[in-house]
Write a structure and sequence with these properties.
Blueprint (H helix, E strand, L loop, with lengths): L1 H23 L13 E3 L3 E3 L8 E7 L11 E8 L8 E4 L4 E5 H10 L8 E10 L7 E2 L3 E6 L9 E6 L11 E3 L6 E8 L3 E9 L1 E9 L5 E5 L5 E4 L2 E8 L4 E7 L1 E5 L4 E7 L1 E3 L4 E8 L2 E7 L6 E3 L9 E2 L4 E3 L3 E8 L7 E6 L1
Parallel strand pairs: 2-9
Antiparallel strand pairs: 1-3, 3-6, 4-5, 4-7, 7-8, 7-9, 10-11, 10-13, 12-17, 13-14, 13-16, 14-15, 15-18, 17-18, 19-20, 19-23, 21-22, 22-27, 23-24, 23-26, 24-25, 27-28
């Protein structure tokens, strides 16, 4: 009887073991995800800096079903219209509704290299995925029109007023002190062969109005000095040091250099657009990198330490180009301390 019971016990254990093995063989196979829906509260957004922290737009998404109870990662993707999201900006969309502030959307516009102050067409979609090893699924692409603004950094400033702009400090080009250390710089276009001007501490004549000596487009400043003078029309880089009262104006022309535009040995010159105050060019470019520089020299050169914004940095990192093609290039140095560029593929 004891042996009979043992046989039944062993048989039962074998059945349980076989059932457990069968259970281990059950696999969960994900199916292609269903497309989530996407809706937006607006289809046109005009962005203004004074409302930077306010909500600009909100997006509401649906859910995606991958065939089992998976953890799905959602994100909003933004791209220029017609690019098939080849270059995109991304915002997490964990909640059903995602609110985007004016500042956030303006940052996205900068990442997409949209032109400031004009209506630009972009597209927005939801991406849903369960794994980096599994293809995502996408919502419909929502069309959106955006007008962005240039997010300027305000620095301590001085003003250049002279015969080239009717001696009006309020509308004169600014010189900026990046470190608030009494050193100022900025770029000014002098269209005449000889220009008289002063440098004022306020956007009026009510502060200190610096004149002084002028020798070889430089000299010593004085609050009671004669008008300053620059000889030769051109686009000048002006520096002021209020500690030693020195000033200097260096005439500049601008170019690009790097393997993205040919090589690091030969410059590609840009052309000054007097009406817009920018340096421009239509440039055939390769995948690679480049810099902007003045007078075919690295004494004054600009790169970009943060590609997510369009602000240039003096002596900054090389600017990368992802793909070969013909590009419209714009270099803008007219707003002191907020030097920007745009590289747009045709």
């Amino acid at each position: 009887m004891k042996m009979f019971f043992s046989r039944y016990l062993i048989s039962g254990l074998l059945i349980l073991l076989l059932w457990a093995c069968k259970k281990d063989e059950v696999k969960v196979i994900a199916k292609p995800g269903s497309a989530p829906s996407l809706a937006a509260t607006l289809d046109t957004v005009i962005l203004l800096k004074q409302y930077a922290d306010d909500q600009a737009i909100a997006f509401k998404r649906g859910t995606s079903d991958f065939g089992y109870n998976a953890v799905v990662k959602y994100e909003l993707q933004f791209a220029r219209k017609g690019t098939n999201f080849a270059d995109k900006a991304v915002v997490p969309a964990d909640s059903i509704t995602t609110a985007i502030t004016v500042r956030m959307l303006n940052t996205i516009a900068n990442q997409l290299e949209l032109e400031y102050g004009v209506y630009a067409d972009i597209e927005v979609r939801i991406s849903a995925t369960i794994s980096d090893n599994y293809p995502p699924t996408y919502s419909n692409a929502k069309a959106l029109v955006v007008s962005s603004y240039q997010d300027l950094v305000e620095y301590p400033s001085m003003y250049v007023a002279g015969d080239f702009q009717a001696w009006t400090p309020a509308t004169g080009p600014k010189l900026a002190s990046f470190k608030s250390d009494k050193n100022y710089e900025g770029y000014v276009w002098f269209p005449s062969g000889s220009t008289l001007f002063k440098i004022t501490s306020l956007p009026s004549w009510d502060g200190t109005n610096y004149g002084g000596t002028s020798t070889n487009n430089g000299g010593v400043l004085s609050g009671t000095g004669d008008n300053l003078k620059v000889t030769g029309a051109g686009y000048y880089f002006i520096t002021v040091n209020l500690d030693d009262k020195s000033w200097q104006a260096t005439r500049t022309t601008w170019s690009m250099i790097g393997d993205a535009v040919g090589s690091w040995d030969t410059d590609v010159d840009l052309t000054f657009d007097e009406a817009k105050g920018t340096w421009t060019g239509t440039v055939q470019m390769n995948a690679g990198a480049f810099k902007f520089r003045a007078n075919h020299s690295y004494d004054i050169n600009y790169g970009d330490n943060k590609p997510s914004d369009p602000i240039l940095n003096k002596g900054g990192d090389n600017i990368k180009v992802a793909a070969a093609g013909t590009y419209e290039v714009t270099l803008s140095l007219s707003i002191a301390g907020n030097y920007t560029y745009l590289v747009k593929k045709k």
